Amino acid sequence: MSEPDLDLAPVAEDSAVGVPVIDIGELRDGHRDPSLASVRAIAEACSEWGFFQVVNHGIEPPVIEDMWAQTRSFFTWPREEKEALMRTRENPWGYYNNELTKNQRDKKEVFDFTSDGRDPVYAAENRWPEGRDDFQWAMRAYRDACAELSLMLLEAMCSGLGLAPTFLNEHFTPTHTGFNRLNFYPVHDPMTGRADIEHLEVADLGVHHHTDAGALTVLLQDDVGGLQVFKDGNWYDVESTPGAFVINTGDMMQVWSNDRYRAAIHRVLAMDETDRYSIPFFYNPDAGTEVRPLPSVVTADAPALYEPVNWSDFRYKRTDGDYADYGTEVQISQYRKE
Ligand code: OGA
Ligand code: NI
């Protein structure tokens, strides 16, 4: 593939331009009308940036504080305890410190978990640490709060496309395949000095540039900074806003909206002074969902730009690419019609 190296593009100098911060209090009151300020702001942000931040989102501060405390604590646990939760090619849930994005290794450690029970994409269950009940309860409470917030945002996004707000709900509730990730971006490469496991040497970014695969992502970041979004040839910092969640649209939303909403390309710089933590929740549809451009966005003048995408199939191929170098990672551009 001869894709230009986006990571060499400049960082924008105009700090007055940035990802919008949107108050979603009116959504919490149950409103979804397309003329609402928050619905319009979300639709506009999804088209322009594929990124925005939300405040007044309704997730209770204790749920968030508990989540931060347990996340920070997790990465201080003994290496053996974390590595006992190591993910495998068959079961992607658990700990990992050798992740690839677009076949390049990222400088980070992660822990992934999903809904309870057997997940329908991998037929696999979460790997929870033994005897760490507080950890597990914090993760679950936070996960469920993220799913609720995500559904509200999904409804606003549908409304912004001229659809009934609940148009896509059948693909998400109750059988969404969303999952959480705890991200730890250490100053020191976790692979340094490890001769006992196979790894690639490259780790010059926290996460190499990518789009998220699913519908939308709800992310909590600490105040260190380093997350950047690509827009019109430049990288923009996604500033840390106290109390806010960072939201971005993923590949499936780009297909559903027939490119009206964009799956923004983003990355995380490698940390060279301060360790960084972030906690995304990737909101993904039901395993059986066939994602294709929605009726309100396909017209005689705007024909469907994509072939239907089977979600499980896409997700499965993407995870395989993250885990190790099993060939080129699947990208949504491969589903674009000529
Ligand atoms: C991701 C991601 C951003 C961040 O995990 O997909 O883009 O700020 N994370 O950690
Ligand atoms: Ni991402």
What does this structure look like?
- The chain has 338 residues and is α+β, with helices and mostly antiparallel strands.
- It is 24% helix and 21% strand.
- The chain has seven helices and 16 strands.
- Strands 1-2-12-9-14-7-6-3 form an eight-stranded mixed beta sheet. A four-stranded antiparallel beta sheet has the order 8-13-10-11, with no helix packed on it.
- Helix 2 crosses helix 5 and helix 3 crosses helix 5.
- The longest helix has 28 residues.
- The radius of gyration is 19 Å and the shape is globular.
- The two termini are 17 Å apart.
- The relative contact order is 0.18.
- The structure holds N-oxalylglycine and nickel (II) ion.
- Nickel (II) ion (NI) binds next to loops.
- Nickel (II) ion binds next to loops.
Task: Give the averaged pLDDT, no decimals.
Answer: 91
In N-to-C order, the SSE pattern is EHHEHHEEEEHEEEEEEHEEEEH
What ligand species are in this complex?
A: N-oxalylglycine, nickel (II) ion
Strand percentage lies at 15-25%
* Global geometry: globular
Main sheet: strand order: 1-2-12-9-14-7-6-3
Helix content: 10-25%
Strand pairing plus helix content: what structural class? Answer: alpha+beta
Calculate the terminal CA-CA distance, rounded to whole Å: 17 Å
Low-confidence stretches: none
Q: Mind telling me the C-alpha Rg?
A: 19 Å
Number of helices: 7
Oligomer state of the chains in this structure: single chain
Sheet bearing the most strands, described?
8 strands, mixed
